Amino acid sequence: MGTLEASRNQEDWDGMISRHWILFSNIDNLTVRGGGTINGNGKIWWRGSCKMDASTVSRKISDALSFNSCKNLRVENLKVMDSPRMHISLEKCTGVDASHLTITAPTESPNTDGIHITHSKNVKIANSFIGTGDDCISIVSGSKNVMATNIVCGPGHGISIGSLGAHNSEAQVSNVTVDRARFIGTTNGVRIKTWQGGKGYAKSLTFKNIVMHNVLNPIIIDQNYCDSQNPCHRQASAVQVMDVLYQNIKGTSASEVAINLQCSNDRPCRHVLLQDVNLVGVGGDSAKTLCSNVQWIKRGTVIPPPRVHD
To answer: Quick one: which of 103, 166, 163 has its CA closest to 133?
Structure first.
């Protein structure tokens, strides 16, 4: 009900072997709530991030609030702010109901995902405001049956499936739904991002009833993702992206390209359905769609329309 604050003194963290500040592990039927604030005081760590300064050797940085191997978990009515790294992390959890959360950090704060989901299933996130320096919600390998509803996202990098397939790894993500979301001034809206060289799949993904306000990349699939100081060379394998629905998505794009579907040469995206989409440039200017290596289907009115040959 009050405020939990992390120490601003980096020396207090020396000797830490964990990437977690507050960790709940292997607990069933846990509820964390109360209306209070968890303040990670992350500013001291962001300055030393290699993403802020490429010459820096980063120290081990903690996530603010982590749940590992929990079943039937409820997290509700909390404010989490200024985490050194990710704000809320769900790993190997089953049956999660997270709602009425407010998660905030400055736009320039690196790697401060709002909610990060990995190897978890049957997860519901609802009625929450998330604005950070990275993904509002990131859903990575091993996750299935994830639903996010009534989410306001911004600033940040949007809601992302991935990244997947880094270091030639195998990824499996399925049955993810984002329904009733609003993106405000984010770099991405709904994004799927995979590295070249990966294996596995991201399938049965639904993004519907979404409003974009001045979003740089409202709808994006990037199968050439490369978050590295060194160039990423072309590789033969890729995570298979398939069975993706974009439905009733409208609003404004801050760039000329409102829909950007850049899929793998070796594993083209399959069964991508665009239905009732209306995205225009800021001020009502026309935008465009770019497609590469994608098997798409159009239903209803889709603006800007995909081009058959690109």
So the answer is: 103
Measure the CA angle with vertex 272, ends 269 and 273; round to 5°. 170
The active-site residue, picked from 157, 213, 233, 309, is 157
CB 24 within 8 A of CB 67: yes
Residue 259 is encoded by which pair of tokens? 């829909």
Q: Quick check: is 157 catalytic?
A: yes
Per-residue pLDDT tens digits of the chain, which is 310 residues long? 999 999 998 888 887 767 889 999 999 999 999 999 999 999 999 987 666 555 544 567 899 999 999 999 999 999 999 999 999 999 999 999 999 999 999 999 999 999 999 999 999 999 999 999 999 999 999 999 999 999 999 999 999 999 999 999 999 999 999 999 999 999 999 999 999 999 999 999 999 999 999 999 999 999 999 888 788 888 889 999 999 999 999 999 999 999 999 999 999 999 999 999 999 998 888 999 999 999 999 999 999 998 754 4
Start-to-end Cα distance in the chain: 55
SS3 category, 142: coil
List phi, psi (to 5°) of 94: -135, 130
**What's the chain's length in residues?**
310
How far is 70 from 23, CA to CA, in rounded Å? Answer: 11
Nearest residue to 141 via CA among 86, 92, 197: 92
Cis peptide before 49 (omega within 30 of 0): no
In single-letter form, the type of residue at position 77 comes to N
Q: How far apart are CA 305 and CA 87, in angstroms?
A: 37
Answer positive or negative: Cα dihedral of 98, 227, 165, 195: positive
The whole-angstrom separation of Cα 212 and Cα 189 is 7
Q: What is the spatial distance between Cα 187 and Cα 8, in angstroms, rounded to a whole number?
A: 30
Nearest to 214 by CA among 262, 274, 280, 275: 280
Tell me the three-class secondary structure of 275-288, residue by residue.
EEEEEEEHHHCCCE
- Structure-token pair, residue 215: 């979003």
